[in-house]
Amino acid sequence: MEPVNTDVSAESDGVAVAVDGATGTGEAPGTATLGAIQLAVEELWPESLAEDWDEVGLVAGHPNAEVHRVLFAVDPTTEVIEEAIEFGAELLITHHPLLLKGVTSVAANTAKGKAVHRLIESGTALMTVHTNGDSAVGGVSDVLADALGLQNVAPLTPAANGLPEEGIGRVGDLEEVLTLGDFAARVFGILPSVAGGVRVSGDRDGLVRRVAVCGGAGDSLFGEVRASNADVYLTADLRHHPASEAREAAVNDRPYLIDVSHFASEWLWLPAAAEALGNVLADQGHDVEIRVSTTNSDPWDFILTPGGD
Given pLDDT bands bounded at 50, 70 and 90, which one contains residue 307? Predict the structure, then answer.
């Protein structure tokens, strides 16, 4: 079965979306500065929603610099940075931080230092929207829940500094009961095509209706998932021991587990984020072209499976 949606290879044009701002007032659109875009990003994904351990916000760039083009991506990899430069973007917004841990040097003989130098030398600013983008309304898990058709959606872990509907992860109900196999096929169909595919733990014919999701690595939320009475939990980067312990602690074999690519689970947010930022900037009278990266930054290239090719 092939995914019905996205191939994020560099050859694919279908995943790139452009959002051109317009004033809506009949006046000539204005040029945005990096500072103005910072304010728009804060409106959509407040830094107060970020986890205490996280590093979000502006990483490189001058707030007074003009911005005409913006590229959204999951990871600030070398390939993504080069894509942004080739596009002519003055701003790259990534979900994952480039500098999450403290550094004492950004010398260009290190991978991260080389990235910082390339960004600055090319005049490309870098901004991170990470766990604040996970938690906010319309964030990573909201988009994932919406793509799966979940209803009556609520956070798995409510935000400490946000609205009741903000927080990490989401839980909701399918419109109709599905078998685990059919639900897994739905998951496979909405995600970008990556080497790792979709891994499932549970009875293929088991019935599911209540679904918990967490874009990115979510094996720290098993307690919240059990408390939500979810039939199945969809997340990424499930490690052996937490997954095994979750299966051992399952009640009536639930929650079933679905493990997907970290990159794929978060890529779905990018088009929605690009559109949301474009709308805010347009309302403010700014004309900015916003595009979603076509670079597949999933780290795996191929997989071997029993009976597979």
Answer: confident
CA–CA dist 37, 46 (Å, integer): 13
Give the list of residues 6+ apart from residue 218 with CB closer than 8 angstroms, or none.
169, 233, 235, 236, 237
Cα angle 30, 125, 265 (rounded to 5 degrees) comes to: 100
Q: Is the alpha carbon torsion for 234, 240, 245, 247 positive or negative?
A: positive
pTM of the model: 0.89
CB 162 within 8 A of CB 131: no
Q: Based on the number of CB atoms within 10 Å of its own CB, is 22 exposed (0-12), middle (13-18) or buried (19 or more)?
A: middle
255 prior amide bond cis, ω within 30: yes
**Cα four-point dihedral sign 69, 74, 75, 79:** negative
DSSP letters, 34-66, are HHHHHHHHHHHS-GGGS-TT---EEEE--TTSE
Packing angle of the helix pair 78-87, 111-122 (nearest 10 deg):
10
Phi, psi of 213 (to 5 degrees): -135, 150
- Give pLDDT, residue 31: 87
User: Of the candidates 17, 19, 25, which has an alpha carbon nearest to the alpha carbon of residue 283?
Assistant: 25
Cβ 217 vs Cβ 54: under 8 Å = no
Residues in the chain: 309
